[in-house]
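Hey team,

Filing this mostly as a record. A colleague (T.K.) asked me to run one chain through the structure pipeline before their review meeting, and I want the input and output archived in the tracker in case anyone asks later how it was produced. No errors, nothing strange. Just documentation.

Input sequence:
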Amino acid sequence: MRSFLRCFVVLMLLSFFIEAQAQVRVLVYGDSNTWGWTPGYSGGAFKRYSDGERWAGVMSASLGADYSVTVNGVVARTLNADLPEGAGQLSGEDENGRKRLALALAEAGPVNVVIVALGTNDLLDELQRNPDAIAADLRLIAEIIDKGTEPAAAPLRKRFVVVAPPALADTSHSIFSDSFSPAAITKSQQLAAAFAVVGKELQIEVIDAGQIIRTDGSDGVHFSKDAHAKLGQAMAAELKRILQ
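Output structure:
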């Protein structure tokens, strides 16, 4: 009897291990829109959409049990730029997405697919960056991802998916008016095209979120709940397509 129970337990554990290993492990690495910032901040604590309302949460639910999604979103995170000042207790260097990506990969690993949804904060007026320079940093991000994801999980470049952010909307009546000027808004309209050029060179998937949603929150920077839902559902479909 004991031998039977022992075999039964081993088989159950083995079954669980095989099922867990079969899951596609996804890391979503982004900024305040991935974190879930609710538009209309007027001081005090940041307001945040619930897990199930944020686009990555919607994507996870749409993907189902065959996928395990880890979300790493930080307010004010850039693709590759130190900010003069960080948000809250974070330093300006902490906001640099490139510098914290290896740690995020180690924490979430083994990772099969990385979805990077960054670029908006690199357009901050104080950084004086242009779309081509921002897009060029995808090369550095790709190098880190190639070293930090599970090699046997998926064909090499299919492990890196970029979400090019939709263009900024009018920020003139929000707290972001001093951060994103009309010049920054114009540059944001060019960012997806710049990402596409580098993405083609690197043979990585670039999803233009601006073709799916628009920045429709009241502050000109963040997404409404409906936009989160639409983006999450679309990204689930795109990820399944990419991994076929």
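Quick notes for T.K.: The beta strands are 24-30, 67-73, 113-117, 160-164, 205-208. Residues 67 and 110 are 13 Å apart (CA to CA).
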